[in-house]
Design brief:
This protein is an all-beta fold and 680 residues long. It has two domains: 11-62 and 386-675, Methylamine Dehydrogenase, Chain H; 101-331, TolB, C-terminal domain (Neuraminidase, 6 Propeller), CATH 2.120.10. It contains one helix and 61 strands. A five-stranded antiparallel beta sheet has the order 1-39-40-41-42, with no helix packed on it. A five-stranded antiparallel beta sheet has the order 2-38-37-36-35, with no helix packed on it. The longest helix is centred in the middle third of the chain and has 4 residues, at 379-382. The two termini are 23 Å apart.
Length: 680
């Protein structure tokens, strides 16, 4: 990830700010201010400098972030996301109060929550950074006051993505994140053990859907990450609980979609949805007595999840709202109501004729579809705890520093010590400030968004093909006036280059500018050339290819293999040199005039994995999960600037600079400002 020093405009490099969304969905909420404190740098430095001055700006993003919700009686149970400790809160709707809370000992987020039919036991499954012997399944006894959630075991897949309980109390779980294909897992409370009942499709990359009835459990999976090659598309299997066998039941109309997104048993019907990519998502209602008999309709948007019923209508969520599916007419329409933008939704249930919708913005909305009204329970006012969150990235410019969390951008104003949380859905994986306006590469399939801090306006600036869904790196070329974004296509493989011209509003995209396997993970721009760094997530094939691309003419100029064993993590340009870091800690420097590699080094002692770079005051700086470092502009020798940062990153480290040459990154879950003046 890169940024060049630019004199003609205020242009500042950013890293993955999370969560810009709709123009109607922005709100500002004051965040808790933390006094700044100057601290010395860690470790000795090379380069003849006295050492950087570090100012601790306090928690980067503080909120109660969430990733799951389920209604039990009059209480919504909500699972946290990327805060420590991992926890579940219980929000009583009649009183609008948090009435209970429990902590889980492992993981970073809870995506899966389900209650058994008796309403006594609530099960939770966690997401975690690494596999191991630690538990990833928990049970909370809701009928015993004061009882805390306890581990019940683990599925061998790293992450638990979905849970379902059969009428007889047997729990089923699915997930992924391991090197092997995801399996269907079963926990029988009477036996007290978790067992693998089978892997029905060895070519799927992730399972995010499970449902359970009296005789069958249902396994939904597909390709959500690392697509391309021979990976499977949407996969749906019925597991005969007595015979222990799997049968493929995926509707023909869904087979081209990337994956099954959600499943639910609704009476005598199995509700099924897909995740959209090239096409919109689909929803099917299958007869449990005859699974070959079903109704199917094309949804609105790329997401369809969290089913419930009210009367004769099935309600569920898409990217930003609530939809209703009427089987009698086989039609799907958005649900209109007077109330706030819902943003990303992590739970849809029904209560007293109203849809109970839990928003990542931090509220529960009880929506009456007939009256078109909504009653709102704000989680902060209800007593949900605030905590420092792991973050997406950082952008700096115009007197502000932006730090992204889930559904939130924390806007820090260091001069006054003020922090304001901006409500914004989704995840801005990377971003840049141009003329004080923030431009983001917006996940998932949201293109480029912009935010104007003076007016508070926020919205989509440019739309691109939906399969180009995951922006990775954003930079700016002052000579062309173009915002440049490197992109990964999760489900299809490969990637893209996006371009956007802020002044004209013109946008273009170039699919697979490196090849069909490599995404564009690193990007740098200078003098009308976009330098693209490739990363191949597949086990075989080329990786770390660097391509010089002319975005105006839409053509490749040249390419080079820098000889790395892993894909490119970041790029930056200084003068005639293009610096690159690989995901295994390889440094390479390319002379862009001679078109040859002039330097290689092993810097894995400070950078091993995702990284970012920025050119600041004529020096290239880098950041990893552990260290801030820089390279000598003539010898390329490495110097440590700040050691042992242990950055609280959600999806890779980031570093940004402002117009005064100050650097911003993370130390722990706090935002820090670094003033460094090496004497080279």
């Amino acid at each position: 990830m890169s940024h060049q020093n630019i004199s003609r405009r205020t242009v500042l490099r950013a890293g993955g700010v999370a969560g810009l969304a709709s123009a109607t969905g922005l709100s500002a909420t004051p965040a808790a201010a933390v006094p700044a404190a100057a601290t010395p740098a860690a470790g000795a430095l090379a380069g003849g400098t006295k050492g950087p001055r570090i100012v601790d700006l306090g928690p980067a993003v503080a909120q109660f972030a969430l990733m799951s919700a389920v209604l039990v009686g009059d209480t919504v149970y909500i699972g946290s996301r990327n805060i420590d400790p991992v926890q579940i809160i219980a929000v009583h709707l009649p009183t609008q109060k948090v009435v209970a809370r429990t902590e889980l000992a492992t993981g970073h987020s809870i995506q899966a929550l389900v209650a058994d039919d008796t309403g006594r036991y609530l099960y939770a499954g966690i997401l975690q950074k690494a596999s191991g012997e630690q538990p990833n399944l928990y049970r909370w006894d809701l009928k015993t006051p004061g009882r805390q959630a306890r581990p019940i075991g683990r599925i061998a897949d790293r992450d638990v993505r979905a849970l379902a309980v059969a009428p007889d109390g047997v729990l089923y779980a699915v997930g992924g994140g391991s090197s092997t294909a995801p399996a269907l897992w079963e926990y029988d409370p009477a036996v007290g053990e978790v067992r693998n009942v089978g892997t029905p499709d060895p070519k799927v990359t992730l399972a995010r859907a499970v449902a359970a009835g009296a005789t069958h459990a249902f396994f939904g999976a597909g390709t959500t990450f690392n697509g391309g090659g021979d990976t499977s598309k949407a996969a749906l299997y019925a597991y005969d609980r007595s015979a222990g066998t799997f049968t493929s039941i995926v509707p023909a109309e869904m087979r081209r979609d990337p994956s099954i997104r959600d499943l639910a048993v609704l009476g005598d019907t199995l509700a099924v949805s897909t995740a959209g990519s090239v096409e919109d998502a689909k929803v099917a209602l299958m007869d449990l007595d005859d699974l070959s008999s079903y109704k199917i309709a094309t949804s609105v948007g790329k997401v369809a999840k969290s089913f419930t019923t009210i009367g004769d209508t099935v309600y569920y969520a898409n990217e930003t709202g609530l939809l209703g599916y009427r089987p009698s007419t086989n039609t799907i329409t958005p649900v209109d109501f007077e109330g706030p933008d819902l943003g990303e939704i992590w739970g849809v249930d029904s209560r007293a004729g109203r849809a109970v919708v839990t928003s990542a913005y931090g509220f529960v909305a009880q929506i009456d579809p007939g009256k078109k009204t909504a009653a709102i329970t704000d989680l902060g006012k209800a007593g949900a705890p605030r905590a420092a969150q792991t973050v997406m990235g950082i952008a700096a410019g115009g007197g502000h520093v932006y730090v992204g969390g889930n559904a939130t951008i924390a806007r820090h104003t260091p001069a006054g010590g003020k922090v304001v949380n901006l409500r914004a859905p989704g995840e801005a994986k990377d971003s840049i400030v141009v003329d004080r306006i923030l431009y983001t590469g917006q996940y998932n399939s949201q293109g480029i968004w912009r935010y104007h801090p003076r007016t508070g306006e926020i919205g989509q600036a440019a739309r691109f093909p939906a399969e180009q869904n995951r922006p990775l790196d954003v930079t700016f070329d002052d000579d062309t006036g173009l915002v440049l974004a490197g992109v990964q296509a999760d489900t299809e493989g490969g990637g893209a280059l996006w371009t956007y011209h802020p002044r004209s509003g013109r946008s273009r995209h170039f699919a697979n500018p490196i090849d069909e396997l490599q995404c564009v993970r690193g990007i740098a721009g200078k003098a009308g050339v976009a330098y693209l760094g490739g990363d191949n997530t597949a086990a075989t094939g080329p990786r770390s290819t660097v391509v010089a691309f002319d975005p105006g003419a839409g053509k490749e100029l040249w390419r080079i293999d820098p000889g790395q064993s892993a894909g490119v993590a970041a790029l930056a340009v200084r003068g005639r040199h293009l610096y690159g870091l690989s995901r295994k800690g390889g440094l390479f420097v390319i002379d862009i005039l001679a078109r040859t590699v002039v330097h290689r080094a092993d810097v894995s002692s400070v950078s091993n994995g995702f990284a970012a770079m920025v050119t600041n005051r004529g020096v290239v700086y880098g950041v990893s999960d552990t260290t801030v470092f820089r390279f000598h502009p003539r010898t390329f020798a490495l110097s440590v600037v700040v050691a042992d940062t242990d950055g609280g990153w959600y999806s890779g480290s980031h570093i940004a600079n402002d117009e005064h040459g100050r650097l911003y990154t993370m130390r722990g879950r706090n935002l820090i400002q670094i003033s460094d003046r090496p004497r080279y």
